[in-house]
Amino acid sequence: MLNEFSLIEQYFLNNKKQRPDSIVGIGDDGAVTRVQPNHDLVTVTDTMVNGVHFDESTPPRAIGHKIVAVNLSDLAAMGAEPCWISLALTLPDADETWLSEFAAGLHEICQYYDCTLIGGDTTRGPLTVTVTAQGQVPAGEAITRSGAKPGDWLYVSGPLGDAGLGLDMTQQADMATGPHLQRLVERLYYPHPRVALGQTLRNVAGACIDISDGLLADLQHLLSSSGVAADIELDKIPLSLAMTETLSQDAAYKKALTAGDDYELCFTVEEHNRGRLETLTAHLKNKPICIGRITQLREPAIQFKLHGEVYELPLEYQGYNHFNNSVTAKD
């Protein structure tokens, strides 16, 4: 029977390469890390709870991957290089099969992004996973939500709504088929944070946020922080083939606007930086897409257009919220 210390040693201590700037890691009272000269430290935290963010059908490997990915997505939105994570893991019991798969998913994504697990805690209770991630950004170059200005162009980093459609397919029997199911479920379970793009956007993007609760919900936070409004061109929103072949036009727009778990980046760029953005992202397979423009503050803060004309798109749901399914501030 595993106890707390043998659990840590077996699944989290004797694992993989360490970053050279991780001076003291797991096994001591605290971690010691060395931040590069002339860099700022960025710290983010996310929690995933059984029955809220995942259920019993979610593969433990996907949980391990995703809890790291959602944190790295926050770091990406600020232009930071991911460096270290700490893990707080609450388990109902020490299920070795579950732990082996969970740890594999966590270590795989950490290795891919050169991010070291440096500590944490394990306790017994309802299944809950919390990760705190830390990254570095050159001093003064962190991207925030508050730098958008009227006249800026509004971009997203990739197709929207796929994870939400994948969730629908796993939960609704009448949708759990079709040629796109596997890809959509992969998008839901194994998101890819836009880490490289985030670092590319330093000194290019005016403001940035990652899309975790849905484009509308997260864009509202950016607009509120910057004191501006936005026009969104619905026909410019990037939609995957899976989305357009599964849903009607308006249903696809609604899913892209309100579904969470995309972990794409939404950011603004001034007119004089658009050419620079295109040059810096020319090598990317999926290049950022311009979906609208920032405007002076007004009500409503977000206006939809279709083929250049104002378009009414009734929405009964604005994005994910833990307490009342409406837009709220995101930590």
Ordered list of secondary-structure elements with their pairings:
Layout: H1 4-13, E1 22-24, E2 32-33, E3 39-49, H2 60-77, E4 81-91, H3 96-112, E5 116-124, E6 128-138, E7 153-156, H4 162-171, H5 181-189, H6 195-200, E8 205-211, H7 215-226, E9 229-233, H8 241-246, H9 249-258, E10 264-269, H10 274-280, E11 289-295, E12 302-306, E13 309-310
Parallel strand pairs: 4-5, 9-12
Antiparallel strand pairs: 1-2, 3-6, 4-6, 7-10, 7-11, 8-10, 9-11, 12-13
Describe the largest sheet. Answer: 7 strands, mixed
> How many DSSP H or I helices?
10
Using the CA coordinates, give the radius of gyration.
Answer: 20 Å
Tally of domains: 2
| SS content category | alpha+beta
What is the architecture of the largest domain at the second tier of CATH?
Answer: Alpha-Beta Complex
CATH topology of the largest domain: Phosphoribosyl-aminoimidazole Synthetase, Chain A, domain 2
CATH class of the largest domain: Alpha Beta
* Strands ordered across the widest β-sheet: 8-10-7-11-9-12-13
Give the strand content. Answer: 25-35%
Mean pLDDT over the full residue set: 90
The span between the termini is 38 Å
**Cα shape:** globular
Protein name: Thiamine-monophosphate kinase
GO biological process, one term: thiamine biosynthetic process
Domain PurM-like C-terminal: 149-295
Function: Catalyzes the ATP-dependent phosphorylation of thiamine-monophosphate (TMP) to form thiamine-pyrophosphate (TPP), the active form of vitamin B1.
